[in-house]
Amino acid sequence: MKNRTRRGSEISQGRDVPESSWGVALIGPGRVGQAMAQLLARAGVRIRFVAARRLSRARQAARFIGSGKVVRLDDPALAGAKIFLITVKDSAIAPVAGELAGIIPNWRGRIALHTCGSASASLLTPLARKGASIGSVHPYQTVPSREAGIKNLPGGYWAVDGDARARRLAGRWVKLLKGTSFSIPANRRTLYHLSAFLVSPTTVTLIDQSEKLLRIAGVPKRVIRPMLTRFVGETLENFAQFGALKSLTGPAIRGDWTTLEKHAAALKRTAPQLLPLYHELVVAMLRVAGKRSRALDSGRAGRGVDRKANFIGKFKP
Ligand SMILES: NC(=O)c1ccc[n+]([C@@H]2O[C@H](COP(=O)([O-])OP(=O)(O)OC[C@H]3O[C@@H](n4cnc5c(N)ncnc54)[C@H](OP(=O)(O)O)[C@@H]3O)[C@@H](O)[C@H]2O)c1
Predict the structure, then answer these.
(1) How far is the CA of 25 from the centre of ligand 1 (A)?
(2) Which of 254, 250, 248, 276 shows the shortest CA–CA distance to 264?
(3) Per-residue pLDDT tens over the stretch 4-22
(4) Percent of the chain residues topping a pLDDT of 70
(5) Domain shared by 268 and 143, yes or no
(6) Which of 260, 261, 280, 283 has the most beta carbons within 10 angstroms of its beta carbon?
(7) Which H/E stretch holds residue 90?
(8) What is the value of pTM for the model shown?
């Protein structure tokens, strides 16, 4: 009873209670959730609950985070938290928010944030209807494991969204993690998220294809990974220093159409499934090159234009 009174006063006093003492419930402790919770805990944020579908999973996560009472997702004790960091998979956010709204009757004074990049705070509407402030705090980062998140989330870039109170909290958390926050309109979230998709998992997919070609070409296995890592790293360094246009190199940019034709013919023989991808990439690359590519065409008195058109037409899958 004593406890309940204390919790009640924590909620009703709202902003008067120092933020460091606000209890955070981590809902769905996956890779992002565990990494964020450990980093926030180290920065002085109080992780009060770690809630998962399975207690064993919550227990493991709480050990990693270093704090948090282990509970199931439907435990009414979660009412003791003021802040809810919801890090379940995207498709589970709205249903889990609906379930939480059913478990805790009063959401006034509470704040709920999710970490999904492609959707706005509106996924948490069931909680807003019960009085909660809702928002999202999305790291523009790839987090393949909780350990990777501990290394790469600090100093990162975060899209924050939601009502004023939720945005303020999200912004403070980003500051604690020494990051940079920005906001984008709700109707552009998909594009924003798509931009991340276009450069991270797709890059890994392309690297995987290169790795296979190098193996077929006979490059020693021990050389392949460090060589590709150095090469891709160098490409990123160039982008950081010069931007996209000036970082472009290779036969498409030089106008070496014979080399491109040899590539396409080799792909047809060895990995025909890659031909459509290769073709689209060359076309997209030439679009990025834009003026540079046109200057190259005119410098060759029209011959370059013909060969470019010929290449694009001939190898169109
Ligand atoms: N990983 C990234 O690179 C990355 C980057 C930026 C943002 N995000 C966002 O962060 C959020 C979490 O991503 P993640 O990669 O950390 O996911 P994750 O490692 O797969 O973890 C997902 C968590 O959701 C729980 N879960 C799944 N389905 C559920 C359901 N129906 N009900 C309740 N809990 C459920 C899982 O619990 P079980 O263990 O019981 O399955 C697990 O704890 C997502 O919104 C994602 O878009 C991810």
Answers:
(1) 15
(2) 276
(3) 333 333 333 344 455 556 7
(4) 88
(5) no
(6) 260
(7) helix 90-103
(8) 0.88
